[in-house]
Amino acid sequence: MAALAAFGLTSCATAAEQSLDVGALAESASAFQAEILQDGVVDPAEYERAVLAKRQCVTDTGATVSDVYPVAARQLTFDWEVEAETEEEVVAINNEAAACDEEFLSAVGVVWAEQNLLSTEDREKLRPEVISCLQENGGQISPGATYDEIVKYVSENIDADGREITSSCLSEFPEYFMISVTNAR
Prior knowledge:
The chain folds into 2 domains: 2-115, no CATH class; 120-176. 54% of the residues lie in helices and 11% in strands. It is built from 9 helices and 5 strands. Helix 2 (31-37) packs parallel to helix 5 (106-115).
């Protein structure tokens, strides 16, 4: 029997000076998501409804899903696993499960993540803790490092020998490293 685990993370925000065009996002979203986005914001109940709808959709594909659990920046996620007789069946089920995101959560998740980014002030308050984490894990970073210097250090060390240095701090402070999808373009 072939098995493959997959993760159902919501859209992770990738910090913005530009604002997200929710109207344009709603126009290209499914009817389910467009209805949620019609007022330009995603409230907690709407976000949870979208996550649960995606979870049900993934369940309907034949995947085994976990309970929903919280992750950084007030986001929710769940994991899923697919067991099937052949690798082709696993791939087909995973493809169906991945399509659930486009139907129920992708646009809503982007807006929710964008709404829950750290403010510049909150990010600045967290900066000393992030630096301390990196240093405690063997990172060679200045105690006065700026946000940009921290991000550069982490990106340069994520796949290098110092992976453990950055990965534990990324796990402990994921919201610190989230930026706006409008900046990612």
